[in-house]
Amino acid sequence: MHRLAHLQSIAGWDQAANMPAKGNEARALAMAEMDGVLHQMRTDASLQALLAAAEQESLDDDARANLREMKREWRASNALPQALVEAKSLAISRCEHAWRTQRPAQDWAGYAANLREVVKLQREEARLLAADNGLSLYDALMDRYEPGMTSAEVDRVFGDLRQWLPGLIQQVQARQAQQTTLQPVGPFPKAAQRALGHDVMSLLGFDFEAGRLDESAHPFCGGVPEDVRLTTRYREDSFMQSMTGTIHETGHARYEQNLPRELLGQPIAHSRSMGLHESQSLSFEMQLGCHPGFAKLLLPLLNKHIGESPAFEVENLTRLLTRVAPGYIRVDADEVTYPAHVILRYEIERALIEGEIEVDDIPALWDTKMMELLGIDTRGNFKDGCMQDVHWGAGLFGYFPCYTLGAMYAAQWFASMRRDMPDLDQRIASGDLNAVFDWLKANIWSQGSRFETPELVRRASGETLNPAYFRAHLESRYLA
Amino acid sequence: MHRLAHLQSIAGWDQAANMPAKGNEARALAMAEMDGVLHQMRTDASLQALLAAAEQESLDDDARANLREMKREWRASNALPQALVEAKSLAISRCEHAWRTQRPAQDWAGYAANLREVVKLQREEARLLAADNGLSLYDALMDRYEPGMTSAEVDRVFGDLRQWLPGLIQQVQARQAQQTTLQPVGPFPKAAQRALGHDVMSLLGFDFEAGRLDESAHPFCGGVPEDVRLTTRYREDSFMQSMTGTIHETGHARYEQNLPRELLGQPIAHSRSMGLHESQSLSFEMQLGCHPGFAKLLLPLLNKHIGESPAFEVENLTRLLTRVAPGYIRVDADEVTYPAHVILRYEIERALIEGEIEVDDIPALWDTKMMELLGIDTRGNFKDGCMQDVHWGAGLFGYFPCYTLGAMYAAQWFASMRRDMPDLDQRIASGDLNAVFDWLKANIWSQGSRFETPELVRRASGETLNPAYFRAHLESRYLA
Ligand SMILES: [Zn+2]
Ligand SMILES: [Zn+2]
């Protein structure tokens, strides 16, 4: 199954990065067929007895953990009929593919029609999973990405955040209003941005003999651990989005490239969860990428590929990287306003899956919540509003909380690193990024799925998820 | 199976066009696993009875032809054990991947070690197939690419060719020695060549919404009919190889893009054979691409992308395109010397499969035959000698004759077209290439595998394979 999923991953990357329009229908059918084959394997009649027998064996820790992960996957797969799996795969491929042209065309009606089909199938999946594991409908879907996490816990954490975040944003904005920040002036040719991206990835330790950087409409980190496929997108009027996006995806990539190589093919060699995965991308993009010491390392690369500019002077560059400004686009958001984007999506997607709202309610809710959380008017602007992300069209309901959980974990990792290495900030500024990478490799990357999330987090940082580190990080970076 | 093979095709293209070095081992394992899954499906125990029952049904012509093709595939698959199929897939992936670096390094010893493993498995495959269908060892392998063709027939056709070809090459060379031909002077930047390739493909009717042009170490036409993936390779000191190579692969591509779309997924929607496939690539590359009328159509594209040059003047360009000169490299050969390259490979690969020679004998045989057929000394030059093609490493024993059979079919098609359209040459010169494309589409592309090869050829051209057309074509183009 590991080997067949390899082909599925590469075909999925190709679909987003290379495939011409007329190839989509055949690709969607091919990937749905493979989803069906994999589902058949996961639901093979012989597995239940084999898993039960394995449970009685004397197993070492790794084997016991493998069995735990196999049972989790077996249980989730057996709750779903093959027809649903294939229908979902098809609906997702079609919705995602059409979104690529519908988004620039502001075609909400067209997108909504496809999305309704995806939501229908996701609700059915939630119903079947929840009936099996006793979770709520939404929690049953979120469990696919963040096993063990519940919306009660998310509500607790996000509820706290919702209280202090708007005030913090205002405080930071008031403070930054007094600063003068020079903006780099374009255009910035794509080829120069691509070369910059490659150099930044090298600086961050990406192994180009085991991966690539390409382009797609929505950036992502795909492929397989042995061959990681990053994508980004370029706008010639600005290089910052592509650069910070590439830094983000490189964090995902290094997690994948450094999973326990000798165990690949076993369940414990998988990344732990999507929250943990985002904790890596955000360790790279936010903790490290917006660090004043990191700006020093970026400067020569910017000079080499983009040119000389007073805007690239370290202090100004740091200001650019830590500029807090409510905006339309989640993936372009700074680390202070980012959680607001996630809270909005979490509230909408949970209501959608729980059946409290319908697809047609999304635009109005989006507008209301954007105004409430960030004071931004998105009415009529589908492209930069509720059609900006393809997650829902791709059936990723329950994924969004992982971004902010990831930001919180990332803050917790860096607090832990600073306890171990009081000179961490000087090390970063001096270019010794291995101080960070070695810690992440030892505590996260090389651990794969040996431990369940709370245990992994406790081993890495001495305690389970503690959102106080995230607040402390933002206050120290933006208000100190 | 059609859908799963889609993923295999895309992953195979990616392996050649994109994959970084460290990805190969995992990719090889993934593709071998899929070959195993497909083999299991083809050898499912229920199929024999189902095929026998279908035989008794009253079927229309298409269904009857589908059944014929299914039985052919069933029989060939059932002659081979799954372990052999997977071992072959793995050995091929490894050999092909290593060849990419071994060839430039002239590492014959390294390549030979991998090739011995492939040959061992190919001989075993030949033995099992021959035991089942009663053909000779080599014919059993050739039957995979050119069903129904035998080495007795190839010997007859190639024997005739071997008699008159060396004399013809000398005659043409003597004649061309009196001509002055201007050579275009480089360097020719890759980006300009790529843009030229795109425009030439458009001129030839390639549908870019259903395919792409990329780069690989060995040019090929891969992907799926709905999404055809061409590759080429660029050298900055010459644009002709890449351009003519792209024209060649575009011929393959248009065959694939124009297979009967409504039947895709059925066996009769497949291209008929590899000889027929090469007859399309060579109709494009040789019949059309070296046609003096076609040079007129290339001129504005060359001016646009490469620049102005007296070498591009139509008469000189035609001379460049029809220059006959014995050379090392098969894929760069002109249409007169090309068959010599094929005869050489056919003689070596047949002896290898029949067990008359071993892998270690290849270099010496290669040198002898190159000297004999083309008067060229390749001793010690593995890169431009027996390591230039990856066919053997890729397990494609029995494929090479298809190139020259294809050249003969292509000459037969154009002779038939000229009977139907006496003004064909003027039409080509005036840019009415649809005269050619419509004929190929009606007679070859849209026919898929409805008919066996001799019947398809007879319906298209009024008779079965007649090599006299090829000789007449060469004499008329090069000696008239
Ligand atoms: Zn991410
Ligand atoms: Zn060809």
From TrEMBL, chains A, B:
Q: Which source organism does the UniProt entry give?
A: Roseateles toxinivorans
The protein's job, in short, is: Broad specificity carboxypetidase that releases amino acids sequentially from the C-terminus, including neutral, aromatic, polar and basic residues.
Q: Which PROSITE patterns match?
A: PEPTIDASE_M32
- Per the UniProt entry, the Enzyme Commission number(s) are 3.4.17.19
UniProt keyword NADP present: no
Q: Which family does it belong to?
A: Belongs to the peptidase M32 family.
Among the GO molecular function terms of this UniProt record, one is: zinc ion binding
Q: Which cofactor does it need?
A: Zn(2+)
Residue sites binding Zn(2+) per the record: H248, H252, E278
- Which branch of life, at top level? Bacteria
Recorded hits in InterPro entries, A to Z, give: Peptidase_M32_Taq
Give UniProt keywords alphabetically. Answer: Carboxypeptidase, Hydrolase, Metal-binding, Metalloprotease, Protease, Zinc
- The top EC class is hydrolase
Please identify the protein, giving its name as recorded: Metal-dependent carboxypeptidase
- Reaction catalyzed: Release of a C-terminal amino acid with broad specificity, except for -Pro
- Which note does the record give on the cofactor? Binds 1 zinc ion per subunit.
